[in-house]
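Researcher: Please predict.
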Amino acid sequence: MTTAAQFPPYGDFEADCPARMAVDLFANSWLPVVVYLLRDGPQRHSELLAGAGGISQKMLTQTLRRMEKMTLVRRRRYAEAPPRVEYELTEAGRDLLVPIYALGAWVDRHGAAVTTAMYGEPPG
């Protein structure tokens, strides 16, 4: 069992606390999905749209723009006709895969119990 002693204190969660920024990254439910989709290399907008089932084109565009502004993805435009644009993770974006995989492992261990507690039955 994990205890609080294994995690050093981080400090107060003030308005400019870096931990709050980190939590904000995951508050946008599509950002971790896009990071995960880009884990194997650059992809085009249409590939990301197909891979992230349920996201609208508008939401994907907004998420990619936000990620680019945060320096998590790099947008590369090729001088071709028709124009081709690809998105790839930066070093900071690739580093986000560590907590994303950690959350996935947590869900593997505890997701069914949490779902049962909330809804009565784990998903089929």
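Model: Residues 46 and 61 are 11 Å apart (CA to CA).
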